[in-house]
Amino acid sequence: MTGFAKRTIRDVDPSGKKVLVRVDFNVPLADGSVADDTRIRAALPTITYLLEHRAAIALCSHLGRPKGPDPKQSLRPVARRLGELLARDLPLLPDAVGPAVRDVVGKLRPGEVVLLENVRFHPEEEKNDAAFAKELARGYDLYVNDAFGAAHRAHASTEGVAKLLPAYAGLLLEKELLALGGLVTDPQRPFLAIIGGAKVSTKIDVLRALLARVDALAIGGGMANTFLLATGCKIGRSLAEPDRAGEAAAILDDAKAQGKRVLLPDDVLCAPSVDDAGARLATVKGVGDVPDDQAIVDVGPRTIDRYADEIRRAKTIFWNGPLGVFEIPAFATGTKRVAELLAASGAVTVVGGGESVQAVEELGLADKMTHVSTGGGASLELIEGKTLPGVAAIPDR
Ligand code: ADP
Ligand code: MG
Q1: What is the mean pLDDT of residues 14-38?
Q2: For residues 351 and 378, is the Cβ–Cβ distance under 8 A?
Q3: Best probe residue, ligand 1, of 237, 325, 328, 333 (max atoms within 8 Å of C-beta)
Q4: Which end of the chain is more exposed for a tag (fewer CB within 10 A), N or C?
């Protein structure tokens, strides 16, 4: 694994300093509480490190996409959950900026922590407005970015402020960059990528970037349907993007030219409808035999066996995107088997993405993986080789 180029919180003595810490607490809520606290727990190492080193910290995050202040998108449930995890009272301040907030932060003592209210209550945040970034930075000595999930956005709290204060990477940001960066720079071979999920269109760039780096690419999920179309299969009423079949065909051609193997499903689970009623009538078909009035909802058993052989052979595996409509248990077999095979594998296993990570968490297999990324879009952009503005803004050591 290559060394880490960016300055991290280990490169500074934060004791007695006021530290603005950008975290990614953009978590799912249900009935006014946190439905999945993975991202909150992922930020704990940085928070505890700073508190133990006697910093006074203000945590800053966005939640959802509010258009101005909106009590439904308040970080209050997050403050409650984080308070439980830290076993201390965690005050939520009424805003991310302004004199009242500055007053509280100014009086914070070493080892104390507060949470700022949803920074996206200010539209200037997403515009990376210079004056707003200045407001955010006021009253702090240091800035720490631990929000990997937001690092692909050039916003005031991820990028603008990093130019106004001495900026450092948090421990989660470092961990993500090392794990995902390792895939890009020096993966152990054979390197297998398993890519599923809904649509080809959202992942064309990542497919192309991966193709250049992997030894084999196994495709599943809704996006496999567009590839099947490209190879001339009929796919009935399956989710697909016929207008992207040309791009899928080009990827298959490029793979051939580069001597890379692309694996597509050869059998699939088909159902008359993508719901519980359909689940009762689902049958396995060869990819040439998908009925006109049915939809592909998962990969079939023969396909899983072929992908399993690849998984067993690989030394590095990157997985993004469920292999079927895993939200419906009867259509979750492919996704579940892939998660189990990765968990049992001795390879370096990295999982990135929204729903694929959710599947791994729900199966209780997250701690069996080498790395489970907290950043959906950010992890894909990193693998595409794009510069993440939130990372670029942190100086090298
Ligand atoms: P990720 O967030 O892991 O990157 P995506 O957002 O690309 O994954 O896609 C996830 C969605 O893909 C899931 O909600 C799942 O239901 C859907 N999906 C997977 N396979 C199929 C399929 N065969 N037909 C329709 N939707 C599918
Ligand atoms: Mg998703």
Answers
A1: 96
A2: no
A3: 325
A4: N
